[in-house]
Design brief:
Structural class: alpha+beta
Radius of gyration: 25 Å
Distance between the termini: 34 Å
Mean pLDDT: 84
Helix content: 10-25%
Strand content: 15-25%
């Protein structure tokens, strides 16, 4: 057998599975299945099919998901660094598919790190609506924020909060809530042997306590008529059917929405609750049978690891009023509109919080505005790129790439005397062709576009209040790497295309300076070649460069660079 399973676990599964047990055990002799999911925020399925660098086989329950052949390493290709796909275990793609996200929805990913399901939700939203993604562990939000940025998500807010505090700020706000609940991890034994080692210390009892609290809080976050998808990667009935039955027993305005079995999913097993947990079964007997409409993903019945998924539908038909303080309605906003975020707590890379300040502005009083200065720790600067020191400011007043200021950008000016929004919007109009949506908000010298009204975030630990656009430095705007990641070549006034086939793209991703003839710089009308250039890999945005006299100076953040041989 490939994996040595805990004796107690195997004994319990034999008693539950009966005749299926031998087939179940044989699945552990097989290698785990690898998959990737195409990021349709950046590339269509048809476009990806035309450039896919390796053979792929569709995953039945996810239209953008594919099995990757054994031995293929999709992380070692420039397309991964361009955010064209996310490497994800196949079964883990099911919960978001069952959430049935539509563009314009307000969606919460409550236990989100490292961000695979968040990026899947974002692709379904297609930049419309609101995505709030959260993880309670500060260290894990680094990977979450980086994945949000790498995959070009424009409408996400990243939090590091407890579910209870989010519910206080967003009562009955979300149309869809995803709970990828902390669990005992039994379904991952084949994929990650460390889960086997930690299983005895990560008890089912402790997980049940967390799951109960998270589910109850999610009910307070959901708008009337909304949907909660609850998922685990464990086989334990206590964390699955019994948990859902308990929730339904207390929350009578919810019902299970049945999950079809044609994709290879097996039904829930309420009889296991009766077999193992007689008292719990008695308490919930009038709702327990509903859990047969939930789904179990078994490694011996489909090509994926062990998962459990329940779709919980709120009965109410009436939607939540949208005309509320802090709610951003759909549509573009004026350049220069800034949200008041003066009481928001922002969490830094090393769990250090800083006070954030900005000023509410309208077109009428824009001339009266002033940039409120804040003292921020270097850890917050490092977090700007989301990875290991990406976007770290250079020395001696240089920007994040260590480059000198460009002409015409107010070099050497005192930022406190400048119009930060004017500087920002001037850059956007001169360098890009796109409409801004949401609110423009400033944290000191940092500029974001946020899909959530500023008042909603007051008092929360905010990792990203929105799409990080860049910083105001010495009277000029320095665009961020996350801004580049979310752009298309058509939105940039200057772009250059690098090939993944000849090593040029890899050299850029490694941080090298490239010689690029002026003829290769694609320009919009009335634009000169000199300046910031959107660097693309086979047509898809990967980062910034600065072009001057045949040389493309590299602006790819150090912490994001290609490190493979």
């Amino acid at each position: 057998m490939g994996v040595k399973l805990p004796f107690i676990f195997a004994e319990r599964m034999e008693s539950l599975l009966g005749d299926e047990f031998d087939q179940f055990m044989k699945s552990y002799e097989q290698s785990p299945h690898a998959g990737l999911r195409v990021n349709t925020l950046k590339i269509s399925m048809e476009q990806f099919d035309g450039i896919a660098p390796f053979e792929l086989r569709p995953i039945p329950w996810c239209e953008t998901g594919f099995y990757v052949p054994h031995g293929v390493k999709p992380g070692l290709h420039p397309y991964y660094h361009a955010g064209l796909y996310y490497i994800q275990e196949p079964s883990a793609m099911a919960p978001v598919e069952l959430l049935q996200v539509e563009p314009g929805d307000r969606v919460l990913d409550l236990c989100a790190a490292p961000g695979g399901k968040t990026t899947q939700i974002a692709a379904k939203l297609q930049g419309k609506g609101v995505l709030v993604t959260n993880d309670i562990h500060a260290e894990r939000t680094k990977a979450l924020a980086k994945n949000v940025e790498l995959y070009g998500v424009r409408n996400a807010v990243v939090l590091n909060e407890s579910p209870e505090r989010i519910a206080h700020a967003f009562p009955h706000y979300f149309d869809k809530v995803l709970i990828d609940a902390p669990c005992s991890g039994e379904g991952m034994f084949r994929k990650d042997e460390d889960m086997v080692k930690s299983w005895e210390h990560h008890s089912v009892e402790k997980c049940v306590l967390m799951q109960r609290d998270i589910l109850e809080t999610a009910a307070r976050l959901l708008a009337p008529g909304g949907t909660i998808v609850y998922s685990t990667c464990t086989f334990a009935p206590e964390e699955n059917e019994a948990m859902i039955a308990e929730f339904l027993n207390v929350n009578r305005d919810f019902v299970v929405r049945d999950i079809p079995e044609e994709t290879g999913f097996a039904p829930g097993r309420p009889e296991w609750v009766r077999q193992m947990m007689y008292e719990k079964a008695e308490e919930t007997k009038d709702v327990l049978d509903q859990t047969r409409g939930t789904a179990r993903l078994w490694p011996h019945l489909l090509e994926g690891e062990g998962h459990y998924v329940a779709v919980l539908q709120h009965r109410a038909e009436q939607g939540l009023e949208t005309d509320q303080p802090g709610v951003v309605k759909e549509g573009a906003m004026e350049y220069g509109q800034v949200g008041d975020m003066s009481r928001i707590e922002v969490e830094g890379n090393k769990d250090h919080s800083i006070a954030a300040s900005s000023i509410a502005m309208t077109k009428a009083d824009r001339k009266k505005e002033r940039l409120l200065r804040i003292e921020s720790r270097e850890s917050h600067d490092r977090q700007a790129g989301g990875g290991k020191n990406p976007g770290r400011p250079g020395k001696k007043g240089k920007d994040h790439g260590g480059r000198k200021s460009e002409r015409g950008q107010g070099r050497g000016a005192d930022p406190t005397s400048m119009d930060p929004v004017g500087i920002y919007t001037s850059f956007m109009k001169e360098q890009l062709e796109m409409e801004l949506t949401g609110e423009t908000v400033c944290y000191g010298d940092r500029v974001y576009q946020s899909s959530v009204g500023a008042t909603r975030l007051e008092g929360l630990k905010v990792i990203r209040p929105g799409w990080f656009m860049g910083t105001i430095k010495n009277g000029r705007f320095v665009p961020s790497h996350p801004l580049a990641c979310a752009l298309s070549a058509a939105e940039a006034r200057r772009s250059v295309n690098l090939s993944s086939a000849n090593g040029e793209a890899v050299r850029y991703l490694k941080g090298e300076t490239l010689n690029i003839e002026e003829e290769r710089v694609v320009l919009k009308a009335d634009t000169i070649a000199k300046g910031y250039v959107l660097v693309c890999v086979d047509g898809y945005a990967a980062g910034w460069g600065k072009w001057l006299d045949g040389v493309l100076k590299n602006e790819y953040p150090a912490g994001w660079r290609w490190t493979s041989v």
